Amino acid sequence: MPDARSLQDKTAIITGATSGIGRATAILMAELGANVVAAGRRQAEGEETARLASANGGVCRFIQCDVTDAAQVQALVDATISEFGRLDCAFNNAGAFPDTGRLHESDNSVLGQALEVNVVGTWNSMKAELAVMVEQGSGAIVNDSSLSGLKGTRRHPAYTAAKHAVIGLMRGTVTDYVRDGIRINTVCPGPIETAMMDEVDSHDADRTARRKRALPMGRYGTPEEVAELVAWLCSDAASHINGQAIAVDGGLSAT
């Protein structure tokens, strides 16, 4: 029986693909048959993603791109079309988690940092991707928000605001493009085993252990578990799923 998540012969762009969730998604999508274009700012890490994703016969190439620069994003999409002829799905995963604290104690620059990558970067990516998908009459976009986009995160007002805005971008565009054959959804990961989460935990093993014990499932999620949802949302198996912000958090949002 064929895999319902099959992405055979589809072309996908994944931003923030140099590590963590982005890298895991690039590897999985390549395994499912997609032509993957992995994008990110860090050349060496991006090339490693491409190597890992191509290791079992998959197709993945890396293009260096800073999503806060609209011209670089457009060049990324143009290069994808030039090589593969179309763009079937995109995972706008690039994000930033700037240090902060209570709002009145925070430097104003923190807000700009949170908005620039998480919101402006997603805007730039969607704009370039949608232009191609409208012309094609088909496509699936998945944006990466966070559990912080669904509820508040203590001492991170800028990040919380930015991730709420990522969901707002989806909700503000989804009905504009549904008749063009384009679906737009958002994933909202809770604590995931990534380098970013390690930074949140201040590289403190005891703090990490305490936080894990407090979670409903007693552990952090894995990048691969988020990747599975992203791949499914990009596949034809999710053809009637549109405009949804879906938590991947082991039940944390239900507490």
Describe what is shown at a glance:
The protein is 45% helix and 15% strand. By secondary structure, the protein is of the alpha/beta class.
Task: Give a structural overview.
- The chain is 45% helix and 15% strand.
- The chain has 255 residues and is an alpha/beta fold.
- It has one domain: NAD(P)-binding Rossmann-like Domain (Rossmann fold, 3-Layer(aba) Sandwich).
- The chain has a 7-stranded parallel beta sheet with strand order 3-2-1-4-5-6-7, with helices on both faces.
- α1 runs parallel beside α2, α1 packs across α8 and α3 runs parallel beside α4.
Counting helices, strands and paired strands, the structural category is: alpha/beta
Q: What value does the average pLDDT take?
A: 94
Q: What is CATH's topology name?
A: Rossmann fold
Gyration radius, in Å: 17 Å
Largest sheet: 7 strands, parallel
Keywords:
255 residues; alpha/beta; globular
Sequence-ordered SSE layout with sheet pairings:
Elements: E1 11-14, H1 20-31, E2 35-40, H2 43-54, E3 59-64, H3 70-84, E4 89-92, H4 109-136, E5 139-144, H5 157-177, E6 182-189, H6 195-200, H7 205-213, H8 223-234, E7 245-248
Parallel strand pairs: 1-2, 1-4, 2-3, 4-5, 5-6, 6-7
